[in-house]
Amino acid sequence: MGRGALIAGAALIVIGGGALGFGVTRKAVGGMTPDRAAAMSAAASSLDGDIKAARASVEQKAKTLAEVGTVRAAVGTDAATAMDMVGREIAFSPTSAR
Question: What's the whole-model pTM score?
Answer without folding.
Answer: 0.45
